[in-house]
Amino acid sequence: GDVFDAVRCAVLLEAGGVVRVAASHGMASPVSEGVTLDFTSGLMRWFEENACIFDRGANAESAPAAVREMQILGGRLAVPLMSNGRVCGTLVVGEKASGGEYSPEDRELLTLMGRCASVTLENAQLYEALYEQQSRVDGILANVATGVVVVRPDRTVAMMNRSAERILQVRATDVLDRSVQKLGSGFADIALRTLEDRKPRLRQEVRDPAINATLGLSATPL
Known about the structure:
The protein is α+β, with helices and mostly antiparallel strands. 40% of the residues lie in helices and 25% in strands. It has helices spanning 29-34, 42-50, 64-73, 104-142, 162-168, 172-175, 185-197, and strands at 9-15, 18-25, 36-37, 54-55, 77-83, 86-93, 149-151, 157-160, 201-208, 213-219. Helix 2 crosses helix 3 (64-73). The longest helix is centred in the middle third of the chain and has 39 residues, at 104-142. The protein starts with 8 loop residues before the first strand and ends with a strand.
């Protein structure tokens, strides 16, 4: 809104097959909270077919359904937001507060902002998917009977499950992000050799004097 001196602007994103206003400025609540678009017609359908900037004035005759939706949103220009090669929303700006026209430079900048926002959205979705996958893995590891420890290349402990805490008789909060040596020299030796030569080691027996027990360790590089 500041960049374009626009009286209103909005970001619309798809959720469950329906496109809604996710964020807005200068837009009345009934519009920002009540408007929904779909891909069967109107602006979203136009973007699927054209994937370029939409001008409510220039496209009045060729895309009347999209123009009506832009009128409801109070938008003058709109650009598509893309994710994984498909339209997932739109960035909309209204008329200029000064009453002036959008210059070719304005239109080029809005198009560039739409592309940058699309990259950001796609990265955010990838991060969310990775986070959900990691949460599932963490949930599995947290409940297996085998003790599991992840050691980073910098030799610090990245993760340990509850079974590892019980077996090694240490608390994860005391060793996470600290040297693997905190888990004992025998344990650290297996982990560090595996990090160094990138070769897996299966069922290595190590005497741990701290807990007065013999540990059966298997290590593999990730």
